[in-house]
Amino acid sequence: MDPNLLLIFSFILVVIMVSFGLGGAIHKRDLAFKQRKLELEAARAGADSPASAKKIEQLEQRVRVLERLATDRGQDLALQIESLRGPASADALPAELTNAEQRQRA
């Protein structure tokens, strides 16, 4: 076998082994980075959990009120909506709605 050919073959083997070693190290660091990123995102999502739970509870309460309004057909829907808006907007009710409210109380 030619000595130059043996030298070239040895050089190629060394280059391949170094390449695989560096590639493995880079891949290992990349996996560690992705795992750390997922851990931080999970921790951040866990920190937002109480605020999200409170917001979900408020939305559920609103849906319950809307379901009750939609299913109670015997009640005057406009009066109930206005009563939910608060006492400040009750003064702005049309006269016919206040009359309906008085009839309902009687």
What would you note in describing this structure?
The chain is an all-alpha fold. The chain is built from 4 helices and no strands. The protein has helices at 3-47, 49-71, 77-85, 95-105.
**Percent of residues in helices:** over 70%
What kind of assembly state do the chains in view correspond to?
A: single chain
Taken as a percent bin, the fraction of beta residues is under 5%
Query: How would you sum up the major sheet?
Result: none
The helix count comes to 4
* Unreliable parts: none
Strand segment count: 0
Return the string of H and E elements: HHHH
Compute the gyration radius: what is it? 36 Å
Task: Compute the separation of the termini in Å.
Answer: 115 Å
Shape assignment: rod-shaped
What structural class do helix, strand and pairing data support? mainly alpha
Report the mean per-residue pLDDT as an integer. 80
Task: Pick out its properties.
106 residues; mainly alpha; 0% strand; rod-shaped
List the helices and strands and how they pair.
Elements (H helix, E strand, L loop, with lengths): L2 H45 L1 H23 L5 H9 L9 H11 L1
Short account of what is shown:
The protein has 106 residues and is an all-alpha fold. It has helices spanning 3-47, 49-71, 77-85, 95-105.
